[in-house]
Amino acid sequence: PLARAGSHHPPPARPAPASAAVHRIRNDASRLHEGWYRCLLADGLLDASIAARLEATWPGRAPHERSQAWIDRQMSRVQSSLKAMGRGLGERPWCFGNSFTLADVATGIALGYLDFRFPQIDWRSEYPNLHKLHDKLATRPSFIDSAPPPPAAA
To answer: Which residue has the higher pLDDT, 148 or 2?
Structure first.
């Protein structure tokens, strides 16, 4: 409501300058965004690789009904994800921050899936930093316990 003429209401206060706490919260939010971005890259790699695998192997579709163009498009997304993951990791020991996080779990799972279903993709030589991370993750009990079985002997 409008103030009556002659009332003694003070003018609205100006917002206070951003405090150190506000800057810290903004910084933390930015860092959190980066961590989720790392998780989403791994998730995207999994989405694309699973889509390519299904297109190539789904028994409900005859070989002549499968689309190599679709498979190629998905595999180019896998390559783009690997490139972004490798670039984002750089020379750091972990995907995000200075310790093991959900981003490392997601990355380890995505790389493990590539090894399991696409052993022909030589991501290790092209991205030695991802190779180093994957090897480190593979020694963790949770990764050991959830590793797929080795391929059956021919």
So the answer is: 148
Residue position matching structure tokens 């579709």: 61
Look at residues 127, 132, 115, 121 and name the one whose alpha carbon lies nearest to residue 76.
Answer: 121
Token code pair at residue 50: 């699973």
E-state strands within the chain: none
* pTM of the predicted model as reported, rounded to 2 decimal places: 0.77
Give the C-alpha separation, 110 to 125, whole Å.
Answer: 17
CA distance 150 to 109: 16
SS (H, E, C) 32-61: HHHHHHHHHHHHHHHHHHHHHHHHHHCCCC
Tell me the one-letter amino acid at 81.
S
Cα(56)–Cα(68) distance, rounded to whole angstroms? Answer: 8
